[in-house]
Write a structure and sequence with these properties.
Two copies of one chain form a homodimer. The N and C termini of chain A lie far apart (58 Å). Helix content of chain A is 42%, strand content 15%. Chain A has 327 residues and is of the alpha/beta class. The longest helix of chain A is centred in the first third of the chain and has 17 residues, at 84-100. In chain A, the strands form three sheets. A six-stranded parallel β-sheet of chain A has the order 2-1-3-4-5-11. A four-stranded parallel β-sheet of chain A has the order 7-6-8-9, sandwiched between helices. A two-stranded antiparallel sheet of chain A has the order 10-12. In chain A, α9 links the parallel β6 and β7. Chain A has twelve helices and twelve strands. At the A-B interface, α4, β1, α5, β2 and α6 of A face α4, β1, α5, β2 and α11 of B. The structure holds a DNA duplex (16 and 16 nucleotides).
Chain lengths: 327, 327
DNA sequence: GTGAAAGCGCTAACAC
DNA sequence: GTGTTAGCGCTTTCAC
């Protein structure tokens, strides 16, 4: 260890060391304006030698770029911030931000118009909206194009990064059908969530095409709601022989509820989840589920916002069926 | 919704609205210099009316305070960033940061001297070190006092925020002893982790005081390591009648390993965990564990760093025994 | 008690 | 191709 607090190196120091003006140094480093190869070389060398790192605050101040990525989580309660799914997104974003020398802050998004306030905040470099609704996206100011991305559905102004949960649902339904299940109930996420409606649609399509009854009991992704939905499904349709839940938490809650009622899994009722969390493989029976590449999705979305590149309107990530004992 | 992109409100706007100078407005809002009660009232009212939020970039620039809180996670691989425990800390910090208008970035801390680089980075407002070792803390520059906190052990320069895992271990040991267990093995965290050594010490004290054999097989908090440690413990001490793990993940891994070997839980071997994660209550058998107020701890540590208040050298949070079926 | 003014480090017009 | 200059929004002396 040498100096405990290294002297801060500014652009002025670099310029002086390279024998040029500050503006030239900025151009050389930024690579935008005109600059002689020689000057560029000298500046680059000086910057490297002095271990120059630009002051992000000054940069943010002058060009209003902002210095934090906000992860805005839509949902009905502030508790959505503690959701494991949201945490994985925030964690991935925080790792991406570290590389850019900025940070991520997380906040609950009770309604779309809160996004407008963020747009007016100069400290905000960009926004990642988690689980947005059409209303939330409709509130996105046009000026935010390129500085916002959605994990969930998108809109013309907001590129979407999401798992292909319609396909995942279809694959899961076919798997259950192939293994002889016919009275299959779906426990999707809350009905206000567009991706939950996507799963319902995929489920309906398969069931109707097979001439089977449609049975949907919405949950909210939580363990508790999985138990409640299971109770409700069994009450309404006692002959149910399979339960497809849109989260592993709900599926695990469903298994617990079935066991409490003396039903065998998968003997009496097959149960499938979604996410492939670590404990899916530890449950008894081990849980059949579909993978959900949350970190990949969040990293891509954060990178797209921070790099400000043009992004396709929708990027879909595949989900893989993982067969275990519960089906 | 009115204007799509609200005009940014600056201190100048507030000052003008309140009919005072910018300096007075700053003093009134900051509450430091001299300021007449009347001016203060007018300024406060104007700020509220205009929904003024200070530009953190400008503030960071002028007083060099930085605009991100870095969560530095010590560990042997970058994978520690994806650990559920680290994610909960980052998530809590991100929520605290949102209130302050700044962000959090997360990075792996392979060695203590990486902290020195952070100290030289003016964009860094403060640091939260997760699971530090004595070596890591020894590398903390003195100038960082008040801008750094540890979740785990501390040092004279770094205040510590941590759960009382010595006490938690002792309480758990007494519980097992009281329920008749005598051949109790401990599966603590990795031996480089000071808090793991604390648990071991508490465990030894109880065992030695009771004249019982000391049996320790370290793990790394993961499900896998819980299984490996269990196999190792059963091989070395086949008469083991209880396993105390320092994480619920390891305990769940231990239960799975025991079941694979045909051992009953808790009939043959009692198993206890630590953390009280959601799935502890869903496992079969449901898992006896001890609570770990991670969010409370992380929020307190982040707040202490961001507020820059004087902090006691060590703040300890209690853990509660949660009795379930596995013991 | 209050205002004027300097300056944090950087970018971007604008002259030369 | 390069240097000069004017701010970005805020804090903080220093006069008054």
């Amino acid at each position: 260890m040498t100096a405990s607090v290294p002297q801060r190196v500014t652009l002025d120091d670099v310029a002086r060391a390279a024998g040029v003006s500050r503006a030239t140094a900025a151009r050389a480093l930024g690579g935008y304006g005109a600059c002689s190869p020689d000057a560029r070389r000298r500046v680059t060398a000086a910057a490297a030698r002095l271990a120059y790192t630009p002051n992000a605050a000054a940069r943010a101040l002058v060009n209003g770029a902002g210095f934090r990525l906000v992860v805005a989580v839509a949902g009905s309660t502030p508790g959505v911030l503690a959701d494991p799914y949201a945490l994985r997104v925030v964690g991935s974003a925080a790792a991406v931000c570290a590389v850019h020398g900025i940070g991520v802050s997380a906040q609950w998004l009770p309604a779309g118009d809160h996004l407008v306030a963020l747009a007016g905040d100069r400290s905000v470099r960009g926004v990642l909206v988690l689980n947005p609704t059409e209303q939330v996206l409709a509130a996105v100011p046009a000026a935010w194009r390129g500085r916002i991305a959605a994990i969930g559905i998108g809109s013309p102004a907001v590129p979407s990064f999401d798992v292909d949960n319609a396909d995942a649902t279809t694959v899961m339904m076919r798997h259950l059908y192939a293994s002889g299940r016919r009275r299959i109930a779906l426990v999707p996420g809350p009905s206000w969530l567009p991706c939950a409606r996507r799963s319902v649609r995929a489920y309906r399509d398969v069931m109707l095409a097979a001439g089977l009854p449609v049975r949907v009991v919405p949950g909210d992704f939580s363990v508790t709601s999985g138990g409640v939905a299971t109770a409700s499904a069994l009450r309404r349709w006692p002959d149910t022989d399979a339960l497809v839940a849109s989260s592993d938490a709900m599926a695990l809650g469903a298994i617990a509820a079935l066991h409490r009622r003396g039903r065998q899994v998968p003997g009496d009722v097959a149960v499938a989840g979604f996410d492939d969390i670590e404990f899916a493989a530890l449950a008894s029976p081990t849980l059949t589920t579909a993978s959900h590449p949350v970190e990949t999705i969040a990293t891509a979305a954060a990178t797209a916002v921070l790099d400000g590149r043009r992004t396709p309107p929708v990027t879909t990530y595949p989900s893989t069926l993982i067969r275990r004992e519960s089906t």
